[in-house]
Amino acid sequence: MSASLRGLTVFAVFGMALYAYAVNYPSSQPNPVSGVVGLYVGQTAGTWDGNIGGYQAANAVCAGVEPDSHICSPMEIVNTYNHNASSVTAETGTVWVNSGAPANTSPAVNDCNGWKNNSLSYYGNVWSFGSNDFAGILPCAFALPIACCK
């Protein structure tokens, strides 16, 4: 495939994603952005170290908090602050969140090796609620609640 054809394909895919975002963006606030970026709906009562059992297992834990919810990404937490801040302003503590692609390779910040490793050598992304309100990383040996989004 030629470089220009590949570029046109990438542009078409990006254009469709941008169209889907625009179609689903709410006309009045505060509303969730449907189908693109979720909102925080709560955190698990229990805690887990980085060996949750994989991404699907982490999502299943969140489904127990709120049906059809999943482990949050940092983008979803920020989206909640932007569109429904009252649902997070009273939250406290630190929770696990998905980062997806590795945020760093040394140390390995890769969702605790896909939520399957509780070693001190691996790291996962976290969100700290309260007066701090920031994202960070912690070793996967820590036991934390999971942030759930929908």
Shape: globular
Number of helices: 4
Low-confidence stretches: 4-28
User: Class of the largest domain in CATH?
Assistant: Alpha Beta
The total of beta strands comes to 8
- Strand share of the residues? 15-25%
The string of secondary-structure elements, in order, is HEHEHEEEHEEE
* Overall tally of structural domains: 2
The termini sit apart by 39 Å
Helix content: 25-40%
User: What Rg do the Cα atoms give?
Assistant: 17 Å
CATH architecture of the largest domain: Roll
* CATH topology annotation of the largest domain: Mannose-Binding Protein A, Chain A
* Broad structural category: alpha+beta
* Mean pLDDT score: 82
User: In this structure, how is the largest beta sheet organized?
Assistant: 5 strands, mixed
Account of the protein in words:
The chain is α+β, with helices and mostly antiparallel strands. Helix content is 31%, strand content 21%. It has 4 helices and 8 strands; from the N terminus they run H-E-H-E-H-E-E-E-H-E-E-E. Strands 3, 4, 5, 6 and 7 form a 5-stranded mixed sheet that branches. A 3-stranded antiparallel sheet has the order 1-8-2. It is globular and about 35 Å long. The relative contact order is 0.21. About 17% of the residues have low confidence.
